[in-house]
Amino acid sequence: MGTTERPRRITMTPAAQRVLEAAARLFYERGVHAVGVDLIAAEAGVTKKTLYDRFGSKEQIVVEYLADRDERWRAFLAQCLDAARPTPTARVLAVFDASRAWSAENSSKGCGMVNAHAEISDPSHPAYPLITGQKQWMLTLFTDLAGDVTPDGAGDLGQTLMLLHEGALVAHGLNIFADPIGHAREQARALLATIGDSVAKR
Predict the structure, then answer these.
(1) Using CA atoms, how far apart are residues 83 and 53, in angstroms rounded to an integer?
(2) Is the pTM of the predicted complex or chain greater than 0.85?
């Protein structure tokens, strides 16, 4: 799903892994622009020279942070989809269930990609394709799953499910009301039931 070109990655050494772990925590908690390499190096217990030797630039650290987060999310989602009942509705709802569980564990401040996009809107930034690529991948996933519900309306349904999902992620980060992802899941379930009834009557 998705053919977005992936950015250049580096080979992780133990020191680079410590830098990545420190940067990931700081970037997510404080924002990409607010965190400098001095702080990352200090938190990782390495020198700035080591940091630059391993990554070359702060931009590359951002790439590695987002790529790692994306890879972990995709692996987590794949497990949830594999464990879901093999019905079209159950597989769609499994995406919402996965996001609910992932967000509770990893995303108290909302979607890392959405947060990063608020700071990185320049398409020339090496991390930009990662951000937009993940969201395109999610749209493709929802559209593929929607095709099993209503082949003729897969595009429209996929977009609607994507809007429910992404809106819920943003609402989760804002913490305006309780369990927005669970609410979005119920809206998706009701929509799928309506579509299923319509398809059955044809």
Answers:
(1) 42
(2) yes
